Amino acid sequence: APKPGENLEKHLKNLRKQMFELAENLDFEEAANIRDEIKRLEDVDLEIGINPFIRQHHLENITEPSSSKKGLSKISRSKAGAAGTRVVRGKVVRK
After folding, report:
1. Using an 8 Å Cβ cutoff, are 85 and 94 in contact?
2. Gap between the Cα atoms of 74 and 25, Å rounded
3. Is 17 exposed, middle or buried (0-12, 13-18, 19+ CB in 10 A)?
4. Residue 86 — φ and ψ, nearest 5°?
5. Which residues of 19-49 are buried (b: 16+ CB within 10 A; e: fewer)?
6. DSSP string, 16-82
7. How much is the pTM?
8. pLDDT tens across 13-67, in order?
């Protein structure tokens, strides 16, 4: 029986092969598009691995192309232990 994610691994392997072939043929723009697609698929796979019950709109936020690194930061994350913070009466406070 195939393992979970095996089809994705095969698809990513084929995309990487295609990306390198395009780069060898000096088609860098298309190679970059494939690179971005690989990154998007890996990000979605990572989020599904972390939270199998993630809602579709969270995945759409991750997969939206953007000029800045918004991707994973749209999902709430704990601030506890972040550099330059401390906890006072159960609340995270910047130093």
Report:
1. yes
2. 37
3. exposed
4. -145, 160
5. beebeeeeeeeebeebbebbebeeebeebbe
6. HHHHHHHHHTT-HHHHHHHHHHHHHHHHHHHHHHH-TT--HHHHHHHHS--SS--GGGGS----TT-
7. 0.55
8. 999 999 999 999 999 999 999 999 999 888 888 887 777 777 777 777 766 655 4
Q: Which residue has the tokens 């990572």?
A: 46
Secondary structure element (H or E) that encloses residue 86, with its range:
strand 85-88
Q: What is the helix (H) or strand (E) element at residue 1, kind and residue range?
A: none
| Amino acid sitting at position 30 | E
Least Cα distance to 64 among 89, 46, 39, 45 occurs for 39
Task: Name residue 3's amino acid.
Answer: K
| Domains of the chain by residue range | 6-74
Note whether 41 and 12 are within 8 A (CB): yes
